[in-house]
Amino acid sequence: MIVLPWQRARALRRAGVLGMNQRNGDFIARVNPRRLYPLVDDKVRTKTLAQAAGIQVPQLYGLIAIQHQVQELPKMLEGREDFVVKPVNGSGGNGVLVIVGRRKGRYRKASGAQLSEDELEHHVSNTLSGLYSLGGQPDAAMIEYRVKVDPVFEPISYQGVPDLRTVVYKGYPVLAMVRLPTALSDGKANLHQGAIGAGIDIATGLTGRGVWRNEVIDEHTDTGNPITGVQVPQWDTLLELAARCYDISGLGYLGVDFVLDRDFGPMMLEMNARPGLNIQIANQTGLLPRLATVDAHGRDGASVAERVAFAQARFAST
Amino acid sequence: MTAGGSLFLYKWLDLGVPIRADNAIGAWTVEARIRFTAQSGKPVKVRFAVPLRPAGFALLDETFVSSGYGLSTAVQDGDREALWAIRRARGEQELYYQAVVYPARDTAASAGARPPPVEPPQFSDAQAAVVASLVGQIRAHSADIATFAVETLQRLRARDNSDINLLLAGDGSPERRAEVAAGILATVNIAARPVYGFQLHSEGRHLPLLTRLEVHNGERWISLDPLTGAQGQPDDFLVWSRGKPPLRDSDGVRHLRLEFSAAENTYEALAAARQRAAERGSLALQFSLLSLPVQMQMVYRVVLTMPLGALIIVLLRNVVGIKAFGTFAPILIALAFRETRLLNGILLFTGIVALGLGARFYMERLKLLLVPRLASVLTVVVLMMAMLSVLTYQLGIGAGLSVALFPMVILTMTIERMSIGWEEAGPREALQQAAGSLLAASLAYLVMTDRQVQHLVLMFPELLLIVLAITLAMGRYTGYRLTELRRFKALAQ
Predict the structure, then answer these.
(1) How is the beta sheet containing A114-115 ordered, strand by strand?
(2) Does the N terminus or the C terminus of chain A have fewer Cβ atoms within 10 A?
(3) Average pLDDT, chain B
(4) pLDDT tens, position by position, B96-118
(5) Taking 70 as the threshold, does the pLDDT of residue B76 lie above it?
């Protein structure tokens, strides 16, 4: 049966799906002051901010801001077996290079592919010239601790670390998902690069069904292990941390990415002032009703604990 | 929105500025093209008649194109001649004269012109005898100058009459008849002359030169059809020259060819509207873009369509949800398409981007820094375009020549973004975005080059206020994008 565009639009409206235009016009423009963007776009500043607030982040090994410093790269990496190279102003996981080991002067990526010293330096140079940054401006590259996968997620991630994305509206966590790396996504946890997104019940921290590309799935595409009904460890702590990110960033509509490290527990990776809409697909639910609930019943100045309790009470998946 | 709308309505309804590109009533550009081979070593002179106050028309603008030639014009007895001269010329030469005329029914330009003294006609003895007897017969069958002239033309129609054949010298053309009739009328002191001109009712090259006979009845010139003697000049007849055919004489030339062409254009009904505005003391048109030189108007014709292109991009991005490279890059590509036409443009764009991508992938192996790499890709793009131009020229395809204006920097950035997209998000995504860019550019091109659209924005720039209003409204459109309907399909149950 052919569905006419306006019928589909009405169905989506009923389901409370938030579209790109509405996200930009009604939410981001309204509750995210532009002057706060640099706080979250610049990952080094985000790190400092989080650390000051007592939120754990992957340790920064070094920062390369100018081309000349690329020569110091080998010295900077001395004694580091594994690390991650990231553009400071990157977006959407572009330009993230994960090195899991070294062998005879060559670097090994999660996929097993090897990189020479020159190739690594070239990658850093590209990052500096703005290849991966928002808007193509000159950028810096940061080298940081490589997060080790928590055992819970090991069976359902392929060559990478799953990350937990939470959308926080006015300090209330409204929707969450876990992004599982696949072979297609090259170990990266971005849905548009082919990672699996699985919704998480805000109330319990149990994962729901997953979405891979446009299909709804219950097993990991590479490992074949079930992705549904997995209990995310330390869920309450994670929600609290996510809610606190509102207080430290000041952004009313915020996407927060956490990872669970085997040894250190929850660590904040980054914050996003324009979080994607795919989280709705992963959860099979629209954002609008939840955003409306916060607008109607949320209270300015509520404490972190109050906001988390509110979210867990109201936003349970049925 | 209201301001734009009301100014538009005022100009359209009250002042009569034409709203459609083609409803400007009978404005014509008539062009004469003279081609010849210059005889080497000799000075070249061409004397050519050009219109002067043609009855029923107003001469709005005229242009002489004659590179290197000295040009002078002289007016004598209601007839104007242009003289082109050059000391030395070689090979094939071309001279152009272009006049823009529009119907001005109220100007009876010929009314006040005094007839010149009647020149004695040049007939042979035998012809003179025939003329004398003819004049006697005609006089008996006519009442005044007009009927005398009509009767003369009627007599000349007689077939198998040896006397008439002697006069016409076997040439029954309207031109010859008009000349002979003028000669006969001159013997009885009636001022008459053949006039040459064109029937302006359809556009075309190779416009045929027509002849009519004008007779002065003591008050004004009356126009007669030399074949039938019918009186009255048709409305759309443009008198080009009087007394003698347009091409008067020439020196130092061989293989002289003269060709006329006519094209209808909109330029004119505006002048009428402008006049109406001036009469009413309205400033609406005085400060319009039409007061600018034509050259600048041509620029604005393009510039003014750009907001429309931008509106299309807004629609495609925010309502349809198409992905494309750069924000306004598609508009620049659309502008480039103006030079190459759509199909060639798409082929060129695809070809150059594909080849550029190849070069870019090779450069990836060289591990260059960003800016030098962009510069290298730009160089490759420029070289490819130069090669394409030479190639297409050799093959005799014109499209390649206009490539030069294709925005190279935009192409370079497109190649760079595409190759990054290719590696980061896969070929599918990159190709999708490239296709989106092309689609947006094509749509923008189609709208921006539409003759009607160009006409409207040039005549009514205030319409852009309405475009602005729509764009502002689009800025607050928070509904779903069409592509999102598909993207969130799974949530629609």
Answers:
(1) A60-64, A141-144, A83-87, A97-103, A106-109, A114-115
(2) N
(3) 78
(4) 888 877 776 544 444 555 666 66
(5) yes
Interface residues of A toward B, Cβ cutoff 8 Å, are: 3, 5, 8-9, 11-13, 15, 17, 19-22, 25-26, 67, 94, 118-119, 122, 125-126, 129-131, 192-193, 211, 214, 216, 277, 280-281, 284-286
- CB-CB contact of B151 with B213 (8 Å): no
What is the C-alpha separation between B138 and A157, in angstroms, rounded?
114
Which fold, B26-111+247-279? Immunoglobulin-like (2.60.40)
State mean pLDDT over B440-455.
Answer: 85
Residue range A120-132: average pLDDT? 84
Smallest CA-to-CA distance from A255 within A184, A197, A185, A312 is with A197
Residues A5-55+149-314, CATH architecture: 2-Layer Sandwich (3.30)
Eight-state DSSP code of residue B365: T
Q: How far apart are CA A266 and CA A178, in angstroms?
A: 13
Structure tokens at B77: 């007895």
pLDDT band at B20 (very low <50, low <70, confident <90, very high): low
B288-292 contacts, C-beta under 8 A, 24 or more apart? B288/B461, B289/B458, B289/B461, B290/B458, B290/B459
B370 interface with A at CB cutoff 8 Å? yes
Contacts of B492 in chain A (CB under 8 A): 3, 8, 11-12, 15
B369 CB within 8 Å of a chain A CB: yes
Instruction: Tell me the DSSP string of A142-171.
Output: EEEPPPPBPTTTGGG-SSS--EEEEEEETT
pLDDT over threshold 70, residue B265 = no
Parse chain B into domains and list their residue ranges. 26-111+247-279, 125-232, 306-448
- Mean pLDDT, rounded, for B68-87: 81
**Residue B38 bridge partners (DSSP):** B91, B253
Tens of pLDDT, residues B127-175: 888 888 888 888 888 888 888 888 888 888 777 777 777 777 777 788 8
Q: Give, in order, the Cα–Cα distances in Å from A150 to each of A58, A70, A161, B414.
A: 14, 32, 8, 41
pLDDT number for residue B109: 46
H/E stretch holding A21 reads: helix A20-22
Q: Beta partners for B241?
A: B196
| Range from A58-67, B179-188, B463-472 carrying the lowest mean pLDDT | B179-188
| Total residues belonging to chain A | 318
Cβ of B371 within 8 Å of Cβ of A129? The answer is yes
Could you list the beta-strand ranges (E) of chain A. Answer: 60-64, 83-87, 97-103, 106-109, 114-115, 141-144, 163-169, 172-180, 196-200, 207-212, 215-217, 253-261, 265-272
CATH architecture of A61-144: 2-Layer Sandwich (3.30)
CA–CA separation, A40 and A309 (whole Å): 26
Q: Looking up tokens 């993230």, which residue turns up?
A: A96
Domain ranges (residues) in chain A: 5-55+149-314, 61-144
Contact B182, B193 (CB under 8 A): yes
- Which of A8, A10, A68, A186 would you mutate first to test chain B, the one with the most B CBs within 10 A? A8
Q: Which residue has the tokens 């306004």?
A: B328
Task: Give the burial class of B126: count Cβ atoms within 10 A of its Cβ; 0-12 exposed, 13-18 middle, 19 or more buried.
Answer: exposed
* pLDDT one-digit tens code per residue, A16-50: 899 988 998 899 989 999 888 888 888 889 999 99
pTM to 2 decimal places: 0.64
Chain segment A139-178, per-residue pLDDT in tens? 889 999 999 989 998 888 888 889 899 999 999 999 999 9
What is the CA B425 to chain-centroid distance, rounded?
A: 49
Across the beta sheet with A215-217, what order do the strands follow? A215-217, A207-212, A196-200, A172-180, A163-169, A253-261, A265-272
Question: Given this chain, do its domains A5-55+149-314 and A61-144 carry the same CATH topology?
Answer: no
Q: Please give the structure tokens belonging to residue B87.
A: 């000391």
